[in-house]
């Protein structure tokens, strides 16, 4: 005689709030709670930063203020995701794709290297077509100390940005959505949110938002191929650093220290104008090249022999 085990009946509130497969909140509620935690922690950390800045009368356009803002976001994003992952998801933050091994370092470094070719392609097209005018190098116009300071501060800023934005967008957002939806929709929705989060940047428009969404789709690719976040983090760090600091473009509307000085004068539809390449059609070949190099790397023996 076979005994049929009947599943316990779930009441209305359990159906609304709890996952049908395990005792944790549904993905949408987990995302909502994490967002609330992020806002609360961000406000608390922001107050701790803003008050000293005001007392010291530091120029709010200073890179140091940008760095302070990123440190605030670093704390708020990392802490909110750690708490949400631990108490809502019943998972470790490492399970988001943050396994520490030799491969993690390789992925970050290769990701940064790939973006050199992407931004080099954009600059090469613009200079060849006469869409930008070369003016000189930073060390020809500023002291060695100023160049070193600019490089150092902006490198730290972009290291922080690469970590926190990937942890949030390709980490918690994408993976929480994927636990409740098909991967296609999880990638599309998380990339769209990524684009919307950049609407507050200087000079943002619906065109720049579409460009950021496309960049979000590109940054999701390495996670889908490796199920780790390190390659995405490296690509994000390198994209911002080479775009702004090395090749001298605006980084999503933000002016950075620039090693290579030039003035963009080509058609805004292609160059992105004051917002930078993300708002122009030239971002498409750059992303195509980056996607190709990402696929080649993830399938190469170089990566496979380092996976532990």
What does this structure look like?
By secondary structure, the protein is mainly alpha-helical. The chain has two domains: 1-91, no CATH class; 98-304, no CATH class. 66% of the residues lie in helices and 4% in strands. The protein is globular. 37% of the residues are buried.
Question: What can be said about this structure in brief?
Answer:
The protein has 308 residues and is mainly alpha-helical.
What radius of gyration results from the CA coordinates? 22 Å
Strand order, largest beta sheet? 1-2
Domains, number: 2
Helix content: 55-70%
List the helices and strands and how they pair.
Blueprint: H1 12-17, H2 27-56, H3 63-87, H4 102-128, E1 132-137, H5 138-141, H6 144-178, H7 183-196, H8 206-226, H9 230-246, E2 260-264, H10 268-271, H11 283-298, H12 301-304
Antiparallel strand pairs: 1-2
Helix pairs in contact: 2-3, 2-6, 3-6, 4-9, 4-11, 6-7, 6-8, 6-9, 7-8, 8-9, 8-11
Q: What brief labels describe this structure?
A:
2 strands; mainly alpha; 308 residues; 2 domains; two-stranded antiparallel ribbon
């Amino acid at each position: 005689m076979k005994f049929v085990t009947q599943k316990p009946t779930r009441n209305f509130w359990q159906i609304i709030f709890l996952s049908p497969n395990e005792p944790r909140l549904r993905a949408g509620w987990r995302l909502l709670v994490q967002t609330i935690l992020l806002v609360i922690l961000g406000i608390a950390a922001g107050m701790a930063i803003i008050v000293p800045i005001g007392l010291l009368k530091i120029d709010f356009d200073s890179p140091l203020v940008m760095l302070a803002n990123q440190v605030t976001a670093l704390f708020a994003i990392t802490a909110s995701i750690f708490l949400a992952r631990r108490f809502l998801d019943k998972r470790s933050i490492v399970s988001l794709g943050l396994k520490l091994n030799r491969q993690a370092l390789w992925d970050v470094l290769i990701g940064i290297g790939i973006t050199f070719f992407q931004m080099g392609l954009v600059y090469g097209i613009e200079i060849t077509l006469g869409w930008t005018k070369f003016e000189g190098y930073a060390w020809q116009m500023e002291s060695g100390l100023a160049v070193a300071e600019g490089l150092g501060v902006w490198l730290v800023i972009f290291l922080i940005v690469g970590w926190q934005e990937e942890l949030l967008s390709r980490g918690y957002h994408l993976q929480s959505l994927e636990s409740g939806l098909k991967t296609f929709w999880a990638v599309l929705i998380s990339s769209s949110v990524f684009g919307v989060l950049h609407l507050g940047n200087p000079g943002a428009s619906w065109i720049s938002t579409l460009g950021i969404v496309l960049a979000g789709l590109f940054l999701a690719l390495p996670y889908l191929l490796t199920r780790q976040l390190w390659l995405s983090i490296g690509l994000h760090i390198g994209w911002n650093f080479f775009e702004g600091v090395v090749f001298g473009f605006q980084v999503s509307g933000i002016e950075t220290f620039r090693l290579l000085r030039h003035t963009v004068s080509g058609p805004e539809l292609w160059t992105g104008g004051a917002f930078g390449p993300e708002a122009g059609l030239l971002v498409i070949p750059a992303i195509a090249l980056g996607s190709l190099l990402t696929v080649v790397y993830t399938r190469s023996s170089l990566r496979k022999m380092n996976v532990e």
